[in-house]
């Protein structure tokens, strides 16, 4: 799933390639991708893109005197830029293509979604706050006013595991499964630790890991073409998706905990005092 760093990089890429250009055609190929109907997607046509914004994991294309195109790539969605779009109409139901946006230059982008769980979402709205997911977002962890005190205040009453708290978009916007693993590894903290039980020292360590991990990921992604962002993300991860590999910090074997629809990765030596966590479907912690 694209998370804050990748979506921020996509925002920068689209700002460079879209702003100042006119949208001449919007072609929804998979009707399920559209979450709004008024105004229609055709209302975007004929309007110049004036800015691109990011809200958590949402991308927002602002147009001059027209509506806005807001999208969430979900778990398996992606944006593919093309300097020259294919001619002709795409065929519905053939492949992962969900929506195509064409510019007056002949360039544009495709939104695609792999797999059978179709969660990619596109909204055509006058204001991004009309999108329910945007309205529910918590603060952006890279915002200038997101300081340690604000972070501590968000966590102090959270009686749930820190892994889940970090992934909650209504608490903190933009962090998903991969970067929550990376943040917790950098903070040397168990993903099962209760958020409300963090000491001031632990909170400070986690806050520093949050800001550093995301900032470094954004910097790695800056200037990378849209098509290479997935590979760039994977290359920078230390524990997420690296089950069975040695931890780059201590050399211990990276372990995994599986859930019904996801998994987490961690280093026992760095994060849990050497104790491997059991699969949550069996028990909480191996004694």
Q: Any descriptors?
A:
287 residues; alpha+beta; 8-stranded antiparallel β-sheet
Commentary on this structure:
Strand 3 and strand 4 form a beta hairpin. The chain starts with a helix and ends in a 16-residue tail after the last helix. The protein is elongated and about 60 Å long. The chain has 287 residues and is α+β, with helices and mostly antiparallel strands. Helices cover 27% and strands 21% of the residues. The strands form 2 sheets. An 8-stranded antiparallel sheet has the order 5-7-6-1-2-3-4-8. Helix 1 runs parallel beside helix 6 and helix 5 crosses helix 6. The chain is built from 8 helices and 10 strands.
Helix content: 25-40%
Q: What is the CA-atom radius of gyration, in angstroms?
A: 20 Å
- Percent of residues in β-strands: 15-25%
The first-to-last residue Cα distance is: 33 Å
Contiguous runs where pLDDT drops below 50 for at least 5 residues: 282-287
Mean pLDDT: 93
Strand numbers in spatial order across the main sheet? 5-7-6-1-2-3-4-8
N-to-C order of helices and strands: HEEEEEEEEHHHHHHEEH
Sheet having the most strands: 8 strands, antiparallel
Per DSSP, the total helix count is 8
User: Would you count the extended β strands for me?
Assistant: 10
Q: What is the structural class?
A: alpha+beta
Shape verdict: elongated
């Amino acid at each position: 799933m694209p998370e804050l760093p990748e979506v921020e990089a996509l925002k920068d890429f689209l700002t460079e390639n879209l702003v100042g250009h006119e949208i001449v055609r919007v072609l929804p190929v998979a009707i399920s991708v559209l979450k709004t109907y008024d105004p229609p997607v055709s209302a975007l046509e004929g309007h110049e893109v004036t800015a691109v914004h990011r809200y958590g994991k949402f991308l927002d294309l602002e147009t001059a005197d027209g509506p806005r195109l807001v999208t969430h790539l979900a778990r398996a969605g992606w944006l593919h830029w093309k300097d020259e779009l294919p001619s002709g109409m795409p065929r519905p139901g053939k492949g992962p293509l969900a929506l195509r946006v064409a510019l007056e230059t002949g360039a544009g982008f495709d939104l695609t979604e792999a797999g059978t769980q179709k969660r990619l979402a596109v909204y055509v709205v006058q204001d991004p706050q009309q999108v329910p997911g945007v309205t529910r977002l918590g603060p952006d962890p890279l915002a200038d006013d997101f300081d340690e005190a604000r972070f501590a205040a968000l966590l102090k009453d959270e009686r749930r595991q820190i892994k889940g708290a970090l992934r909650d978009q209504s608490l903190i916007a933009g962090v998903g499964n991969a970067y929550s693993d990376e943040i917790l590894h950098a903070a040397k903290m168990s993903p099962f630790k209760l958020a409300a039980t963090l000491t001031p020292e632990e909170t400070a360590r986690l806050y520093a890991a949050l800001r550093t991990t995301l900032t470094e990921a954004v910097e790695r992604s800056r200037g990378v073409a849209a098509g290479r962002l997935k590979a760039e993300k994977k290359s920078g991860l230390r524990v997420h998706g690296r089950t069975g590999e040695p931890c780059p910090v201590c050399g211990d074997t990276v372990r995994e905990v599986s859930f019904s629809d996801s998994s987490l990765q961690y280093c026992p030596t760095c994060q849990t005092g050497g104790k491997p966590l059991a699969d949550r479907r069996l028990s909480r912690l191996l004694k």
